[in-house]
Amino acid sequence: MEKIKITPLQIFSLIVLFELGTGLVVNLGMEAGKDEWLAVLLGMVIGILLYAGYSMLYLWFPNMLPTEYDKLLLGKYLGTLAGISYMVFFLYKASRDLMDGGLLVIATTLRETPVFIVNMLMMITVAYTIHKGLEVLARTALILLTVMMMIGALNLLLIAFAHIVDINRLLPVLGGGIGSLLRAVSRTNYQFPFAEVIAFNMLLPFLNHPKKGVKAGYLALLFTGLILSLAVATTVAVLGADLAERSYFPMLIMVGKASISDFIQRPDIFVVMAFIIGIYFKICIYFFAAVIGISNIFNIPYQKLIYPLTLIILALTAFETRSYSEHLTKGGKMLYLVDPVFFIVLPLILLIAAVIRKFIFRSRPGAGTGTGGGFGTGAGDGIMGGAGTSAAGTAHTGTEGGSGAGYEVPRSGPGSGGGVGGGGS
């Protein structure tokens, strides 16, 4: 792994920009109609619960990438297959988000430019940023999140002063029944964009304060959910549920209506700027997760993988779709059929395997019976770390680790002492 660390504030900024990336751009489905804002809030709650499971795996294996503890929990071959599957999934997600950004730019500003050219320019920027490293990306996120929040506040003020909001379009609440609301949450809203935070399992090991970083993730998801719910509610109140459902970029149309006499017109250009910032960071996160994971699996320096994988993503966008409607249709099929495997099924299997492993380890004779304090080192058998012996005590149990060298943590016991441990069992 890179010898760098990112702060909880930086991970907060990255998660917010990642979640808002295409969440603000693409139509969220509107399956719940005028109650879509409620569906977003329920989806946020489920997304936070899923993040709790993802972060639990990280806290149990804080110094390991998912591609490492996959092999520890599932075995060498199944774990490697699971890791490669996730990396392919992340690359595909990056290509879809790149296509979202390219089609947005073509639809709003560069109408005569081929979408491949727009995608290529954006992907070159992403590759350059990732080549500079995660720390550069994290520092940039702090700055551009501030820019996005300023643009969002400005747009809200323009919409308010333009007098185009009709709250009656949101009433009655749950007019279509709770069935359509739950159907929208189960099919779309918990996955897009909240469950996509699983990509950050590849970034969490770089935190300088693990527990604070995980808490920052919870706050980021809560903050993002509230913003998206407010955005959807405002869009429906301005456009109505029918027009918002039929539009490819409903928020862009909504902000385009917020002109104030002849003084302020076409404020949608600022929204396009915010959209591009969000999509850029979403592509960066998915791309970094794929690059660092493939680097770990095949033991290749990640800088050497950046540009070949860039070409792969561009190739995926070149052959993926012929129209935006086809793009959305394929994305919907992925969302219902494939994404749950990576968002729910595989993480659940890993959690169950981790719990079983911990239970087996704790039930081993002599585990946790050591005395003394201090850190011990030594070769372990790969089962939850190694065991050391201090100067005045016996065995110490260690934290989770991969096969090979393990390390122990301070444990209290009937004796005392400290020192460097010997060989582990």
What can you tell me about this protein's structure?
This protein is mainly alpha-helical and 425 residues long. Helices cover 64% and strands 3% of the residues. The chain is built from 14 helices and four strands. It has a two-stranded antiparallel ribbon with strand order 1-4. Strands 2-3 form a two-stranded antiparallel sheet. Helix 2 runs antiparallel to helix 8 and helix 4 crosses helix 5. The longest helix is centred in the N-terminal third of the chain and has 33 residues. The radius of gyration is 24 Å and the shape is globular. The protein starts with 7 loop residues before the first helix and ends in an 18-residue tail after the last strand.
Order of helices and strands: HHHHHHHHHHHHHHEEEE
Quote the average pLDDT.
82
Low-pLDDT regions: 368-425
> SS-based structural class?
mainly alpha
Total beta strand runs: 4
Instruction: Sketch the major β-sheet.
Output: 2 strands, antiparallel
Report how far apart the termini are: 27 Å
- Which outline best applies? globular
Widest β-sheet, arrangement of strands: 1-4
In percent, how helical is the residue content?
Answer: 55-70%
Percent of residues in beta strands?
A: under 5%
From the alpha carbons, calculate the radius of gyration and give it in angstroms.
Answer: 24 Å
Number of helices: 14
